[in-house]
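Tutorial, part two.
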Amino acid sequence: MLSLSRLLTGTVSEGDALRYQRRSAALPSHLLHFSEDKKPVVVWNITRTCNLHCVHCYASAADRPFEGELTTEEGLRVIDDLAAFGSPVVLFSGGEPLSRPDLFTLSRHARERGMRAVLSTNGTLITPEVAREAKEQGFAYVGVSLDGLRDIHDRFRGKRGAFDASIAGIRACREAGVRVGVRFTITRRNQHELPAILDLLEEEDIPRFCMYHLAYSGRGAKISADALDAGETRAAIDLLCDRVLEWHQRGIDKEVLTVDNHADAAYLYLRIKRTQPERAEEVLRLMRWNGGNSSGTGIGCIDYLGNVHPDQFSWHLTLGNVRERPFSEIWTDLSIPLLRGLRNRRELIRGRCAGCRFYDICNGNLRVRAEAATGDLWGHDPACYLADDEIHRPELVGA
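Running the prediction step on this input gives:
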């Protein structure tokens, strides 16, 4: 996750992170990317049941019950373990997490144990009452997924009326005082909707926007041909940067992040080096602290069955199960070859990524996308949109 707006506008600095000694437990949420200890943010897919059928769903969720979900008591024990381990954030996802009746019991317990609870939702089930409950029961942030305006969004989500219901959910969160943002996965099917979605953020006074690059996982793997090419990706990032600067000049505070393509860091650095050279070295240092992809290090996943994965897109890669061993034990067990490999991936990664001068701010990008495209977990991630001369010219990278 790259905080494009904060790095581009200079609203975050080295001193901000150093003030908290770069420790996960102390850092505010907007500085967690720069922590030194990299305690994992845990995405917990508490259910695979969902009332929608999204074309890019990595969980291949469906509108039916799935057997074997962790019980409430098992979930409370998971939270106790995560809190004791020092995980700063638990992100409740799905499926649609609001379809579980014990969601607020779990979120309240996370808050009481000192963790930040985040909700990832399609927003359609958020009524004013649900929004008030989310506020009362510990959710620090609610991310609502939108794929475009009404027609495109409803088509992506497989249900007429989904867009209007999601917008109503966002408005309910705003009225209840819950911090809310939009999550947008960009593909060739909806890239033309990006300007309109950014307009919507301003019209609805939504403070946060996360643009996700397509991960070839779950149903997302079936539409991998819809991933943007290099030119289209660069155009999307340029559009985001231009809008961020326009908002900043107008005094409009929006947090804009990009997710799941860590070449974004290098591309942003090159832009800052060209347009704000006096800030380039500090930005590069912050990006090195961020470290790029953190699958298996700074982010982990627990699925609805209790299986532990390196990230939310790698359900086919399992490290263990919390019914058999606590997450904290699994996450620190370097006898697990996959976990050991992800922690020492530089010596394993092959192809174009291996010789990249921006490796330390990208960390080899998204491994499951590389595996889906090449058949090799340690191969080249095809979503990298940097040109060869950008990767290999040493004068482009500061000391």
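DSSP finds 16 helices and eleven strands in the chain. In part three we will examine how such features are distributed along the chain.
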